[in-house]
Amino acid sequence: MIKIQKYEDVEEKFFSGREFTGTIDSVQAVLNDVKERGDAALAEYSEKFDRIALSSFEVKSEVLKAAADKMKAERKELFDALSYSRDLAYRFALKQKECFTDFEIELESGVFTGQKNIAVEKAGAYVPAGRFPLVSSVVMTVVPAKAAGVGEVILCTPPRANPNGTNEPYADENIMAAAYICGVNRVFALGGAQAVAAMAFGSQSVPKVDVIVGPGNKFVAEAKRLVYGNVGIDMIAGPTEVFIIADESANPEWVAADLLAQAEHDVVAQPILATTSEKLAKEVADEIEKQLSTLSTVETARKSIDNYGRIIVCASLEQAAELANRKAPEHLELSLDSGEKRDKIASMCRNYGSLFIGHESAEVFGDYAAGLNHTLPTSSSARFTGGLSVRVFIKTVTTLRTVPSSEGATKSAKAAGILGDAEGLAAHARAARLRLS
Fold this sequence. Notes:
Strand content: 15-25%
Largest sheet: 6 strands, parallel
Helix content: 40-55%
């Protein structure tokens, strides 16, 4: 049964970031080995961890196309849903890209400064394929890169046994189909920390990329943490979480369903409801039990609800918003009627990965098909970062252009000389003053 408590009883550790990766020595060993031996190490780890012996790693383009054609013929609703999700995500990402403007401005007479936004050349996406192959994560990781203008997007996903009985590389059919639908340039049947290593360092088969994005288990998360600096990453994602702010206007069946939608992801997922209504709190708790009884993912969801879920009864919606800001959840829902009150609470909330406003705006829409990206900050990291977007694939660089002997260039040269002297950097000072002659 989900825990119900009052606002004043919420313990301080509730607001601390949740750490589930830890230092995994074996991950560093895998990274070092792949960096040193390349494809030979990748083959050994695929056989050891995925129990599949591969003759090579890259899935042929015709295999990807065949998977997409098969999906279109046999599961057209899924094909259409993926295409719709891709289209919305692409349109949203293009709009985001518009915010990254290039400019040049004359700060002083003859001193022109500017910025340029340049997409990285190569990006790598990792898509897990465990109990639930995350076909939607293909859309969320690949489409923003395409919209950003990345030259080449590769995708790594764990291998599957090839149905033709050979050891030719193969992967989950739905993930391969989604990769084709989203325009991935190259797909590699590689999973785990070894896939991250391959993309970070390159191998004889896998190109080295500039940025690695995508979710994964604790080994993948640790590998991304360790290769950061050699490549860029989106974030270190932990277990999913949802925080719902609701009052008596909320539908307890809908609220319970939204909490369980997060709970079924992982036994350590964290579903939270903050409400001003004790009646709603009890109704939601009862509804959770009712829905669990018919949920196919009950084993996972039950552990999440019992161990990490909670309902917090607050004195006011403002108090609930304060809780949300301190918690900085991955997903924040405002299950409130439209009006000035909801607008006020929405404006108060500032720490979240994505905000879902109103009863009808289900968080699961953002997971799948509303244009938003579902790769979001967890474990309170929404205090300082947002989710995956075109921003991850774009470098904002700066430029300087000066007019010789202009007033501004002369002033900058004099100031630079003085500052060089102050720091004891004589060559700096000389390089500046030479421009005065």
